[in-house]
Amino acid sequence: MKRLLWLPLVMLIVAACVDFPQQRNQDLVNRAVDAMGGADALAQLRTVVVKGTWKQWEPEQSAVPDGEMRFANEATFESTGDFTARSVRVDWVKNFAYPTARTFKYTEIVTPEAGWVIGIDSNGRNKQNLESKPPAHSMSGLRLAATQREMRRVSPLLLLEMRNNPDKLFTQLSVVVDGVSYPAVKYDPGNYGYIVMFDPQSGLPARIRTLDYDYVWGDVDYDLVLSDWQTVAGIKVAMSQKYVLNGSVVTDIRITDVTANPAVPAGRFEPPAAVKAGAAKPATSYVHHQWVLRRQFIGTYLDSDSTSFDVRATSSLRLVEIAPGVLHEVGGSH
Q: Three-state DSSP class for 263?
């Protein structure tokens, strides 16, 4: 009889233990939403135009062993986002320093279903870009998936999305970075997950992390670090945004102007008719984000879903003995 009396109490304790982490997750997200201006203000954001400057470095190249990271490019950009259509257009003027100095002026258009590039954005031009007059091509599924992940990461509505999808929030232990302990929540919208760390004092998102893979370092932390928050149309905007890979700043973005809810001209997100049909869907597996993103850092990315790396491409690699005890690895492109 006593065991039966204890059973409801045990069930209540178990239920409380299950609910507490989820309530903690929701509380952290709700506090961040409030700190950014509140759910109502964020929900009223329909369109946005953001202008800024951009610098990038390639962390695994240097002029001398263990030297400074190789400077890759600096750019100016103007980004137009339509949150109702879930589409983004970014107009770039990008000055590359490596492997040679050159300037590419191009446009990226990204929708939930497909992505396109208008202009020349890389030395590694694919067949469609070479044949299109003027140059343009649809994004590969790999590039589209990687770009969508990063655009979602920097979206001012990410926290509102998290608030509205509590079933996709998961408990994450606090993360210590440079001696600061950040309460954190994992958000998994599908295909990838973000670890969102919150400033202990303000409640604002401080770092948004993904766990990536690098071909030299293996597993790496890839963080978007947000700071210098300023209020635009009642919403807090991080004017300083830095990407940190394995502890090193590889991208430094400075927002110079933000316009909330501007009118967006018709056709702003419309790609050229010649490359619109047959565009790839976002890849859902084998998306090696660091390869896709960082080849774009140096302007040599070949925008193709053809495998040119990782273990699935090693069948062409072989060792050829050119002298006793001297082996030459051949195959691939290098």
A: coil
- 42, 59 contact by CB (below 8 A): no
> Cα(33)–Cα(157) distance, rounded to whole angstroms?
9
pLDDT at 78: 98
Residues 304-329 as b or e (16 or more Cβ within 10 Å = b): beeeeeeeeeeeeeeeeeeeeeeeee
Residue position matching structure tokens 């990461």: 153
**Region at 88 (left for phi over 0; alpha for psi -120 to 50; beta for the rest):** beta
Question: Tens digits of per-residue pLDDT, 263-285?
Answer: 999 999 999 999 999 999 999 98
pLDDT band, very low/low/confident/very high, at 5 (cuts 50, 70, 90): low
- Global pTM exceeds 0.85: yes
Query: Rg of the chain over CA atoms, in angstroms?
Result: 23
Strand ranges (DSSP E) for the chain? 47-58, 70-82, 87-96, 102-110, 115-119, 136-138, 169-177, 180-187, 194-198, 205-214, 218-232, 235-245, 248-260, 318-323, 326-330
Asked whether residue 22 carries a pLDDT value surpassing 50, the answer given is: yes
What does the alpha-carbon distance between residue 179 and residue 14 come to, in Å, rounded to a whole number? 34
* In the chain, alpha helices (H): 2-35, 39-43, 127-131, 141-154, 158-164, 273-276, 289-297
Which 8-state DSSP code applies to residue 290? H
The owner of tokens 């409640």 is 203
Both structure tokens of 213:
């893979």
Q: Which of 177, 197, 194 is nearest to 186 (CA)?
A: 194
| Distances 53 to 68, 218, 230 between C-alpha atoms, Å | 22, 30, 17
Nearest-angstrom CA–CA distance, 45 and 141: 29
Which of 242-280 are b and which e, b meaning 16 or more Cβ less than 10 Å from the residue's Cβ?
A: bbbbbeebbbbbebeebebeeebeeeebebbeebeeebb
Instruction: Outline where 224-326 has alpha helix (H).
Output: 273-276, 289-297
SS3 assignment, position 11: helix
